[in-house]
Amino acid sequence: MNRKLSTTNDDPSKKDQSTVHFFIDTIEVERLSALAFFEAGEDAFDGKRFFWQNREKNFTLVGLGHAYTIESNEDESRYETVEQQWKALIAVSNYKDYPQQPILFGSYTFDPKKAVSNEWSHFSHAYFALATHQLVIRNEKMYVNSHIVSREAITVEDIKRCNAERDELLHKAQVRGSKSYAKLHVTSMMEPYKEEYLQSITQVTDKIKEGVAEKVVIARSLALEFSAEVTASNVLAQVYAEQPESYLFALEKEQNLFFGASPERLVLVKDNKAYSSCIAGSIKRGATKEMDDQLGQSLLNDAKNLQEHQYVVEMISQSFKENCINYTVPTAPQLLRIRDIQHLYTPVEGDLNEGATILQMVANLHPTPALGGSPRGKAMDMIRDYEPMNRGLYAGPIGWMNAEGDGEFAVAIRSALLQQKKAFLYAGGGIVADSEAMSEYDETLVKFRPMLRALGGQLNDD
Ligand SMILES: C=C(O[C@H]1C=CC=C(C(=O)O)[C@@H]1O)C(=O)O
Questions:
Q1: Which family does the similarity line name (predicted)?
Q2: Closest protein CA for atom 10 of ligand 1
Q3: Helix (H, G, I), strand (E, B), or coil: what is residue 27?
């Protein structure tokens, strides 16, 4: 076990120059379920927890409690604000003395120019947290970090309290394990603004034919109600069991839980290399292997989907060209098959320019034409004008970064917002000149399916 008292330096907030103290403690643990650790925080840290697992399942991060939060409602500068505050906080830490670095986790809304409203009113345009107790499981090794950040001097008593709290959580998680939950009971399912959505597809298609934009992604929501309050641990356990091949994420803010299972990497930065993925163009899975292969082949040869995909490849390649010394992009897409859907997929990777950071990449890449459109500015204007809802965190960047600037962000699709007895699910699709409203509608039904299944809801054809 490593143990050190806090280090101090200037305040990370630009506004206040008083001293900040940052205490870190790391212990290595064994036999701990990430879900059980999340659940163990249910009483003491309700509303202040997060969960992340990467697509490859070799990195899991769970956060309980907030040692430090960074929020911003700025438009252009929200990426910079998070970056500066995190760097300033890290500068006062002695993280190099520990086997596990502190990690900042959080998410950005899809569109900072659109005021957060309706179900999203509790969230900021940037919402990040350093956990009080942070579990990291990486390549079979497990570490729990505890963090205290304070303007007051950190006393031996504070550290004792923090360690006792951690030991209590570990005991709870190890002894109880993760619970098994009864199936959730949905009492109503509504499609808000269905007519407006169908109409918006026609309007957007007409505008694209007029040459206003090439591609615009339009989304809609489903609203569910349950017979009883649904807990975050319950939902997370369902998502965990149901979506083995995606990024899993969950982020609490007070009584709100934003969660999902996304196939889409926005960017991974590791040892000065950057990796992104172009995912656009979709078709359902087939009931038999033959049907599945036929559907996959027809997707690989479908001009409309290839066009939708190509806009994403061009934009992400351009971003890599600007931010990397060199980069590689395969010449043709392959299939990415996940439980409910198949996508066209092109991975992109490159060696980052000196000094380029993960949040600069996130700012540069988001929104790709897989969630916004092409050209970006025109597509965003059309989403603001025609899409009949507020996306909030849906389709925004969600992920983490460590003290040395490595990290990963996914695009928060296949996602939902849970508010006790209510949930809102979100899905969209790329609209090009020859898109048809009803087939776009059907595609959203396929994309709703993972979160709907996790929440115990059913579509007519299930
Ligand atoms: C907008 C969504 O998916 C995007 C990502 C992959 C494929 C897409 C498509 O084929 O339209 C969408 O661009 C969503 O899942 O809500």
A1: Belongs to the isochorismate synthase family.
A2: 281
A3: strand
Residue nearest to atom 13 of ligand 1 (CA): 370
9 Cβ partners below 8 Å, 6+ apart? 19, 20, 91, 92
What does the DSSP assignment read for 276-292? Answer: EEEEEEEEEPPSSHHHH
Domain spans in the chain, listed from the N-terminal domain onward: 2-176, 186-246+258-454
The architecture (CATH level 2) of 186-246+258-454 comes to: 4-Layer Sandwich (3.60)
Give me the half-sphere count of Cα atoms (radius 13 Å) on the Cβ side of residue 351: 3
DSSP H/E element including 346? strand 341-352
Tell me the two tokens of residue 393. 């965190």
In angstroms, what is the span from residue 430 Cα to ligand 1's centroid? 6
Residue 264: active-site member: yes
Q: How far is the CA of 373 from the centre of ligand 1 (A)?
A: 11
Strand boundaries in 99-210, DSSP class E: 103-108, 126-138, 141-150, 186-190
Instruction: Indicate if ipTM > 0.90.
Output: yes
Give the pairing type, strands 422-431 and 265-270: unpaired
Non-local (6+) Cβ contacts of 454 within 8 A are 235, 238, 239, 242, 243, 261, 416
- Are the beta carbons of 129 and 50 closer than 8 angstroms? yes
pLDDT at 461: 59
What residues are paired with 141 via a beta bridge?
138
Check: CB of residue 224 under 8 Å from CB of residue 448: no
Buried b (16+ CB within 10 A) or exposed e, 60-70: bbbbbbbbbbb
Joined tokens for residue 304: 């409309």
Does ligand 1 lie within 6 Å of residue 281's CB atom? yes
Taken in order 365, 371, 373, 379, the sign of the CA dihedral is negative
256 half-sphere exposure, CB direction, 13 A CA radius? 14
Residue 308 banded pLDDT, cuts 50, 70, 90: very high
Ligand 1 centre distance from Cα of residue 371 (Å): 7
Q: What is the pLDDT of residue 4?
A: 40
216-to-284, 358, 371, 393 alpha-carbon distances in Å: 21, 26, 8, 18
Which is higher by pLDDT, 405 or 5?
Answer: 405
**Residues 260/413, Cβ–Cβ less than 8 Å:** yes
Structure confidence by residue, pLDDT tens digits, 347-384: 999 999 999 999 999 999 999 999 999 999 999 999 99
